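Many introductory courses stop at the sequence. We go one step further.
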Amino acid sequence: MKISENWLRQWVNPANTSDELGDQLTMAGLELDDAQTLAPAFSGVVVGEVITCEPHPDADRLRVTTVNVGDSTPLQIVCGAPNVRVGLKVAVATVGAVLPPIDGKEFKIKKGKLRGVESQGMLCGASEIGLEDEIDGLLELPADAPIGVNVRDYLGLDAMIFDISITPNRGDCFSALGLAREIGVINRLPLNRPEIRQTTPSISTAPSVKVIDDEACPRYLAQFIGNIDRTAQSPKWLSEHLMASGVRTHNFLVDVTNFVLLELGQPLHAFDADKIVGDIVVRFATQGEQVELLNEQTITLSGDELVIADDVGVLALAGIMGGLRSAVTDDTKNIVLESAHFNQLAIAGRARRFGLHTDASQRFERGVDFELPLTALNRATTLIHDIAGGQVGQVTTVENTDKLPKREKIVLPAVKIEQLLGISLPSDEVVDILNRLEIATTFDGQNFTCQPPSHRFDMNIAEDLVEEVARIYGYDNITTRLPDFALDMSYDDTADLTHKLKLALAHSGYFEAVSFSFSDAKIESLFDDEKLGAVLPLANPISSELAVMRRTLLSSLLPVVSHNLKRQQSRVRLFETGLSFVGQDIKNLVQTPSLAMVATGLVADEGIYDKRAMDFFDLKRDVESLLPQSLNKAQIAYERADLAFLHPGQSAYLTVGGVRLGWFGQLHPSIAKALDLPVVWVAQFAIETLIALHRTNHAITAPSKFPSVRRDLAFLVDKSVQWQDLMGDIRKAAGEYLTDLWLFDVYQGERLPEGKKSLAFAMLFQNSEATLEDELIKSAMDKVAKTLADRHHAQLRDS
């Protein structure tokens, strides 16, 4: 927020320099981003009056003027500005004047000739003295501007402008009142508040107002003012305050509402009363309803936007921007002035939805003092009446005080201040600080009982009060002290083990991706499966492409794959760790820390030996790299996955020790086609389960000194028999010395009976303490053959 130091000092004037005042604001939590004068340095520019204006003898677009600058002899100046005329008060750069640099070079005024006519200076536009041009031509000064006075002094261009960064929780500081209140508290000075009085109504006219939703708008005030003199101009002091705050002046009525906004922090809006048809109605929009705003942008409403309407339709987007249909113009003489309190949640996010960012929405989203509307309305009405006359009507007030924000008392134990700040403050000093902040406070010997004021939306818990005490007491006054702590020797290895999982994938050629937890609803709909649960939509998405919470990390990774493929990266390997979210609302939301993988393209970087595409077993190898090397392979099992977004024949669940870790396989071809992707291999696992495996499987055993024995057996079984079932029974029957087991051959062909298949297994036996005897091996093999024959009708093949 930009504001003039002079304006702040009209409210409260401490004996501090500008730098000291800026430091005070920063240390109070209101960071000073910048401080500079209203206009850059220049000299030799005074107020002048054009007394003659004649055409140039040799140039159609130039005028030869004589200008009175207060000296005995008027200056002859040649000017090409379209608005130069007799009687105009203007900024005159005299010979020797130094203007703000152009392209880094000093610009000094010299006596010269333009087309043969001598010119003794220059008539200045706003940009030529470092201000913003509002018209094409010269800067037109008020008719009562004193001739010969230095323009810097007359316009107050040496005033220091503070650019202050207001944090989102301090909406009460978005005004001269709010900032001055802070300065007054810090320096123990009272505020010189401007006199705000109620103008006595001169007519009985009162706007007719209906508030349909008093939850969203618990207080709405409107006042009619008629027969306003529109020839009245904004006073110089008012325009200067607006200009110093970076607000362009418009017409008088708009200037007054902007001024009150900056002065008190209460947004106001003026409607052209003659353009309102019927009653003013505060309601929520109807879906599909349209309104053309003041910026000439036509928007279509969704139905959850609060609007101000009449019998014809929408007049304004409440708390954000007025509509063009009811806008005041230079011809408007009758107005309805609106001052209201809107619920923060009814305004939050609506402006961003339509690409808008207004002073009003900025304040209402952060919270505006609900006791301020009448004060601000009286201030604006009085300014309009005093400057432009008019007939003041009655104030219409529609409110439900039960729906206004509540300011509950907060109990602050005295011991908590020392616990949090590390220092002990006298109770009377704490009471003084809080009372100066308008937080009504009493102390009973143990606890401070505090009543926050209506303008402090950020005061809810005891810690909020401790923060207030600290910043007003002064952070620099709080001595540094190491906190007391008890050493906890326990070690959480979660981060290390997560890093270990990431390294395993990196060694397999995968790159880590980092993305939002939000997803595109269109992409998320492709993963519809009741096993994933419901989708949680965002109430206030940052964009339409990030409107729901992701149920799987694939929603984030697949767009990244597409992005890379479109940039000629045909081989993509990515992984991501993050949360997946399942649930239709916050109360039932389940957040699961997950690890996901995606891969497409060749199995390896292109070379002369291996140019084949990645397949299911390549993905299976990468998945198994995530498991502990010391894990007993007998615990690992796979079962066919039944997820709708995976290929039904090339996907599986991974189970270890009876616990399902996750799934992997080929992305369903229909989804790949919808996303314009080739064959994509995907996987997702619960990180916490993977980490638990690594914690319990980290034992290191020395290799056996005794030889191992390998035996191969082939069995003829029905095609319906699963090889994993056979492996499980082999492990049980083979005995304690079986150290490894794997399937190495599957055969189905003409030489086998109909409906049969041959499965060949390799078995590795080893005793770490002795050499295995042939009889022991033969006994184990016989038991395996008998077990498979009994349980699966398996026939042992000789060859």
